[in-house]
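Action item from last meeting closed. Structure (345 res):
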């Protein structure tokens, strides 16, 4: 697949002149410029997500400031859950006032026919960004994996172990599966809508997919991500699947069928690539807290990861999870530059 962007070339395993890099959660509170836009007006975080002009502005910030090789749509994995009929708030973490616990709750969930209407601000932001970038960087669209979305919908908020979801999964598997079917279909429509609107790659975030044992991942998590990916109108759109804490079950993660696999920092990137094989690209995997270290240490860590990759094609540099809100921006800028500098052919 011919493309001029290093990021997309790397997704397809093609050679690049230097390793492309972007940061998960690269638009956010660590940037004073984000905080400025966020505080403009009286709006909440959700208001910002729903304002195409300001949402596009904060998507562009890390491209200008960090020189990242790809932009990611500014939104949240939970925004498409609102039109399913759930009241969503951020405080600052997500809160659903009425979590899903019963068959009646699942039955009430709406799977909107037309996601472009249900979350009309999302295609509006995507179109605005494609025009603004004019070929400068590719735009990544994204969604939560069905399992991670279910974690929040059933728990009603963030959690360390999402015990309420697991209770449903083990105690009432048919209820769990009915819920997952609805979420997966919503997600399929949502991501296809983003592709239709102009997203040039799709990342699926499975932040909590590693909370389960491998045999449970195979039974309760994987079938839905697999179905989701199989249902995307991918054409030439690469799909990235990031499952945090999945280092002990990479073969299963690969079975989902993505073009790129996101890795966290608990795995050695080279060993992970040996397990995954040559037909899939990888993205990762710097420990996000390394961005608090002195610059020479950051540079050493970037070099270590480049060495672990050992020149194999199909590599995108990223953090192993989202950037933290207290990271000094200059360290993030330094990291991106180090990747470019140290990998330049
Ligand atoms: O720059 C980007 O990456 C695009 C924007 C983006 C946000 N959330 C904005 C956001 C993306 C890709 C996400 C994904 C997301 N959201 C995930 C998966 C990735 C991950 O980090 O694990 C998850 C689990 C969520 C749910 C969520 N949203 C949580 C747990 C929180 C609270 C924690 C926090 O960072 O505050 C949010 C809020 C949120 N989403 C903020 C941002 C910029 C902070 C809100 C604010 O500005 O006050």
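Sequence:
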């Amino acid at each position: 697949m011919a493309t001029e962007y290093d990021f997309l070339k790397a997704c397809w395993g093609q050679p690049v002149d230097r390793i492309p890099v972007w940061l998960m959660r690269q638009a956010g509170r660590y940037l004073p410029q984000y905080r400025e836009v966020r505080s403009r007006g009286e709006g909440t975080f959700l208001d910002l997500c729903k304002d195409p002009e300001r949402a596009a502005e904060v998507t562009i910030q890390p491209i200008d400031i960090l020189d990242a090789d790809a932009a990611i749509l500014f939104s949240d994995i939970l925004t498409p859950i609102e039109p399913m009929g759930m009241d969503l708030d951020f405080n600052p973490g997500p809160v659903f006032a009425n979590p899903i616990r019963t068959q009646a709750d699942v039955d009430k969930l709406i799977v909107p026919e037309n996601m472009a209407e249900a979350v009309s601000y999302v295609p509006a932001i995507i179109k605005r960004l494609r025009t603004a970038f004019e070929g400068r960087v590719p735009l990544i669209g994204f969604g939560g994996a069905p399992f991670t979305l279910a974690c929040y919908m059933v728990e009603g908020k963030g959690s360390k172990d999402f015990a309420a979801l697991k209770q449903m999964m083990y105690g009432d598997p048919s209820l769990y599966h009915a819920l997952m079917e609805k979420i997966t279909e919503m997600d399929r429509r949502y991501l296809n809508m983003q592709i239709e609107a102009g997203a040039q790659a799709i990342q699926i975030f499975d932040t909590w997919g590693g909370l389960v044992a491998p045999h449970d991942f195979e039974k309760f998590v994987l079938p839905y991500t697999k179905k989701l990916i199989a249902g995307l109108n991918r054409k030439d759109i690469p799909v990235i699947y990031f499952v945090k804490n999945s280092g002990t079950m990479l073969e299963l993660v690969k079975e989902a069928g993505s073009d790129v696999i996101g890795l966290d920092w608990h795995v050695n990137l080279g060993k992970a690539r040996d397990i995954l094989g040559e037909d899939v690209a990888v993205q990762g995997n710097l420990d996000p807290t390394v961005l608090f270290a002195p610059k020479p240490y950051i540079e050493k860590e970037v070099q270590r990861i480049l060495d672990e990759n050992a020149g194999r094609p199909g590599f995108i540099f990223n953090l192993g999870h989202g950037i933290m809100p207290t990271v000094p921006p200059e360290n993030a800028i330094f990291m991106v530059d180090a990747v470019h500098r140290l990998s330049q052919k």
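Note appended to the action item: The first helix runs from residue 6 to 11.
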